[in-house]
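User: structure tokens for this one?
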Amino acid sequence: MLKKKVIGLAMLASFGTAGAFASTTPAADEPYTGDVPAVIQRVSQQVGGLEVTKSFDAAGGLHGWVVKDRSSKYGIVYTTPDNTVLVSGLVRDVYSSNLTADYASLYVPQPDYTVAFKAFTTEASSVLWGNPKAKAELTLVTDPNCPYCQRFESMIMKAVDDGKLKVHLVPVGFEAPDSPQKAAGLLKTKDVSAYMTSDVVRGPVEQSTDPDLAAKVKANWALMAKFGLNGTPAVFYMAGKGDDKKLNMSPGVPNMTELLTKLGLEEYLPALKADPKFAQYAR
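Assistant:
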């Protein structure tokens, strides 16, 4: 009999950053009544309890499972066709598309981020990047040393520079030892545009050791922890018209086709799709 193997058990215990999805007030699950493979049952015992909430067919012959831990954090794991191997973590296809994130948007109960959005727009310390009169706007929780933040910022920079998008930047500092000082520098700077066009991750930017600004950066980070946001970027934006206007939230670099379309900025999509650095985000 083939010995059952478990891959990425340590990652599964916390779901890892790639396969974990915070839960503030998720929609109620439909009870799962199907069979659960023995390999998932065994891992559930080892990590202290996992509840399967949904199963689905995944790419490459894998079978996907939505699981929830005792803290109500959701994750997606996969089993091989014979159900003897459990795989946890980020799954990509040949086009480098993040399939785990795609499956999460389809099968994981989506948290209600309304309260979090209000907190990040009314309680958090932030600066405005862009034309205050721009029609499109979003709120971005960002760490100056986060490469994924800078990647997202690069993709929206043209729309900001053109005066069509304004961004409320909420700086936090945890990615690197000098992140808090760089985040405080963003709150201090008188030229947000110059700060944002700098090579934030690899190059020097304005920094500050002002204790009051340091406290504000720390408070921003506390809001992230409060609402279960495990990393940056975190992107919030309202889209739609009138009563149909809805809050959109992406814990990570969002699908740019979706974001720009919803914000009425489709004109910036062709350039992203033509750029090898960004094409994977503009599917």
